[in-house]
Amino acid sequence: MIIMKKLFPFLKPYRLQLTVGPFFKLSEAVLELLIPTLMAFLIDKGINMGNSSYVIKMGIVMFVIATFGVIFAYICQYSASIASQGFGTDLRNAMFKKIGTLSFSQVDKFTSPSLLNRLIGDVNQLQSAVAMLIRLVIRAPFLCIGGVIMAVAIDLKLSIIFMIVIPLFIFVLFLVMFKAVPLYKSVQNKLDALTLVLRENLSGVRVIRAFAGVERERKRFNDKNTDYSDTAIRVGKIAALTNPATTIIMNFAAIAVIYFGGIRVNTGHLSQGEVIAFINYITQILNAMIVVANLVVLFTKAYASSIRVSEVLSAEPEIVYGTLGKGGNSENAIEFKNVSLTYGKSKVAAAENINLEIKKGETLGIIGGTGSGKTTLISLIPRFYDATKGQVLIDGNDVKEYSEDYLRQEIAIVQQRASLFAGTVADNLRMGKNNATEKEMKKAADVAQASEFIDRLEDGYNTYVSQGGNNLSGGQKQRLTIARALIKNSPILILDDSASALDYATDAALRKAIKENTDSKTVIIVSQRVNSVKDADRIVVMDDGEIVGIGTHSSLFNTCEIYKEICVSQEQEG
């Protein structure tokens, strides 16, 4: 019921189609039920009595009914198309919007491949279910019930066959649904796992080939694919039993009708036309029952998909933004007060007891070994994650009090992994500022040391960048992402190991240009290179999630053993 409550609002805009479609489909079914009876009249009163005018009259009536039936079916189909496509579009939009509100930890929990499958595959399944809901859910049962009623009206005793067959038919459908529902959900989960492997192989194809891992990945993919295939075949076998089982049941019913109907004709209780009408009704019921069986399979899949879609729509964002749209008057741009962060269900804190004040206009370097908590620390500033304990303040106010728009406006961040999107160089730069002029892009590119390679590109800023920036080198991608952040012109600039692919000369030129052009900005440089942070106003040294030293390069070299070890390993002197 909770699942339905989540999905029903997406059907509300299509109430007209949800009413009109079934109504006309029901009207078509009524007309279809009349045909066998009219056929009986035509045989008994027309053909058997040699009344050609009656045959022509009934033929015209049946033609008119068939014509109206086609018109009604078209109206229903048109309504179903509008409602199902509109429902699917609205649902996808809502899911995409919801995914955009989820925290990084929630996205990690669902996993990207699973969210992709839910957004596309599961919504498509629900879309098909809505179309069938309008087109067949009323028509098929009505034809079954109406066919039985018409058959009873013709001959009550012969109709006992239906009273025996229908409960048996319902039992088969229930059995299929009971066995198939859990398996359909399992199939979708295994498809998620298969998609994950496929995505990793496509995105990491260079690494896989570089390490001669093609055969290993082929086996890994084959294992996941076989697992998915075996489960799909298993549920397919159960679903495949539906049509043969129902057809056998209904064909035995047809044989019984013909046998006992023949006896009833010989005894004078039925006419030839009535037996033919009876057979037509049982054929209608047979076809309707097969449709019902297929609908059971379809809605079983849709139910499994609805659970997965509802899980996303029901997910409450872990990070709720405030309404504050301006900063305070604090002399500190950023402040950490007894901050700790533990990821998910981990028992070990990724950052612990962090106390740090960063002045406005200060350039702060953060250095430490791999896994020391550098990225974790700066991820708390734009609220990619929320602190498990303590407070993070921006301009004197708790970061949780600010609106999302204000935070995104105040903070420009370049993350470790350089992410570019399909489009031109200019399109990627304008993600930082939608209405950026060519002059602003050029200035940001100059500071980021990107102009020298952009100017060499055939189309300059209009050069096409492939998905993920795969047609650019690692250093080129990093410089573009830095330019994208600079063009935003935010008071706080965070560079998270964003120059790791640059040579030392370019890195030095970049740091010099940033210092000359960001006098009033608060700049945080995260790096594992001593050269990248040694000229910062202060350097924070992190180890195992804790701050183990704060000071200038020279003071830390003399007082912080871990910093000295890093310097010595990189052949740097105090």
- How many alpha or pi helices? 21
**Main sheet properties:** 6 strands, mixed
Question: CATH homologous superfamily of the largest domain, by name?
Answer: ABC transporter type 1, transmembrane domain
Query: How is the CATH topology of the largest domain named?
Result: ABC transporter transmembrane region fold
The end-to-end distance, rounded to whole angstroms, is: 68 Å
Unreliable stretches (pLDDT < 50, length at least 5) are: none
Which architecture of the largest domain per CATH? Up-down Bundle
- Helix and strand composition category: alpha/beta
Number of DSSP-assigned strands = 12
Helix content: 55-70%
Q: How large, in whole angstroms, is the Cα Rg?
A: 35 Å
As for the number of domains, it is 2
Shape: elongated
Task: Indicate the proportion of strand residues.
Answer: 5-15%
Mean pLDDT: 84
Main CATH class of the largest domain: Mainly Alpha
How would you write the strand order of the largest sheet?
A: 6-9-10-3-11-12
Topology:
Layout: H1 2-7, H2 15-47, H3 52-101, H4 104-110, H5 112-135, H6 139-154, H7 160-203, H8 205-210, H9 214-240, H10 242-266, H11 272-314, E1 332-341, E2 351-359, E3 363-368, H12 374-379, E4 389-394, E5 397-398, H13 404-410, E6 411-414, E7 423-424, H14 425-429, H15 438-447, H16 451-454, E8 464-465, H17 474-486, E9 492-496, H18 504-517, E10 522-527, H19 530-533, E11 538-543, E12 546-551, H20 553-559, H21 561-569
Parallel strand pairs: 3-10, 3-11, 6-9, 9-10
Antiparallel strand pairs: 1-2, 1-4, 4-5, 7-8, 11-12
